[in-house]
Amino acid sequence: MPSRISVPYGKGALDVAVPDRFALDVVESGTLPPVADLGGAAAAALRAPLDSPPLSELAAAAVRSAAPRRPRVVIAVTDLTRACPDEGLVPPLLAELNAGGVADADVTVLIGVGLHRPTTPEEKRQKLGAAVLERVRVQDSNGVDPLMWADLGPVPPYGVPGFTQRIVKEADLVLATGIVEPHQYAGWSGGRKTVAIGCCGEPTITASHGLRFILDPNVRLATLEGNPFHETVVELARRAGLRFCINVVVDDHERVVAVAAGAPDAVLADLARRGSVLYTKPIAKQYDVVIAGVGHPKDVNLYQASRAATYLRFAPVPVVRQGGVLIIPAPLEEGAGEGAGEIRFLAALERAAAPADVVEAARRHFSGGDQRAVMVALTMQHCTVIVAASTAPGVVRRAKLRHAATVEEALEAAWEHLGRPARPSLLFVPRSLHTLPVVGARSPA
Questions:
Q1: Distance (Å, rounded) from C-alpha 30 to C-alpha 333?
Q2: Average pLDDT, stretch 248-257?
Q3: What's the fold here for domain 38-278?
Q4: Opening angle at CA 65, ends 244 and 243, nearest 5
Q5: Residue 317: C-alpha distances to residues 144, 287, 327, 400, 436 (Å)
Q6: Does 428 score more than 80 pLDDT?
Q7: For the chain, which residues make up each domain, given as ranges?
Q8: pLDDT at residue 100 greater than cutoff 50
Q9: Spatial distance between the Cα atoms of 245 and 15, rounded to a whole number of angstroms
Q10: What tens digit of pLDDT does each residue of 358-390 get?
Q11: Is 373 in contact with 349 (CB distance < 8 Å)?
């Protein structure tokens, strides 16, 4: 009798019947008690900042240094591809700023879209809440117009050209929100990346996501020590003026389970430690087939949803074996994605005759967006990738990936691809972007 699993799909789920020919295992990230009152938890974190004076004191200092003019304060927040609950984080920040003498009129909330598409007015309301939109200026960063940037100089260790938004560099105080979770390049995402990458100029994205970083063995999920990408974004954020962060950790259901505020490095270290307990999960072996759940908001386009495959391929040990199959259920309402980076990502995969050609083309010329195509191509060289239940099958095929109408159809195709084995191993990772399965690891203490 088939087993039944519930696979994240958009804001809902797909009920999938897994044939009993598969030996099914499931791995989920750990559990921590969810925060009952995000506003209260954020306020408490702001009252006890890590390695930093209270935000109200930083605000008062900004007021004094800016006099006789009014201070300029920027709060950098993530875009809609990150499930950071900014509606609950920004108001407590504003309260602390107000307490230090910064008026709402002095504040700009800057949505760090990187090379993704601009946000719509409705998306800004969803992200921040109507009350914040009524109180302060809210605008998107601009990664494509050099007139909007300030030059921070080349950043070691690889000499990445440092460009941030001029409004950030000219601010008297820069703050950031963020979500701390495993990240393909940064090791752990978080507030310093909101500023360093979300608010940067295109040359910074292009260089920091280039082959030099992709092929560096220390640029890995959940790795900070010795990671040159992490070192680059820390220095970028410092030069851009980032002084204070409030970040969260969320569980598989996007419930906040930890909040920390204070100096960016201290906040990252604290939440990466707590997140490691949540996200890192030991597994005993590699698998023939893996179903990688994504869910909203990452499964809105192929650029973001493809992270499910590359995260599991570039775990410390690939979760799927060489020649195996990765299945990604994703609706892809926006196709490949609508931003400049997403358009380049699809074009790089579409024009290549084979995955190896994507990598070779990137060696000759590299633009922001190509990094995702390279990561997908390297994954395709390792295993077969099937996107299931997409509303954009044409886009999937243009990217040289296989498409299946349902997850059940994808499982049947995987079984055929493997040569109809008697008992293929199958791993289901419901939230593959929040779960880091590590072959042979022990559970974190």
A1: 30
A2: 90
A3: Rossmann fold (3.40.50)
A4: 10
A5: 36, 11, 18, 25, 10
A6: yes
A7: 3-29+284-439, 38-278
A8: yes
A9: 39
A10: 999 988 888 877 889 999 999 999 999 999 999
A11: yes
In contact, 72 and 109? CB cutoff 8 Å: no
pLDDT, tens only, 81-99 = 778 999 999 999 999 999 9
Which class does domain 3-29+284-439 fall in? alpha beta
- Mean of the per-residue pLDDT values of the chain: 94
Sign of CA dihedral 329, 335, 340, 344: positive
pTM, two decimal places: 0.84
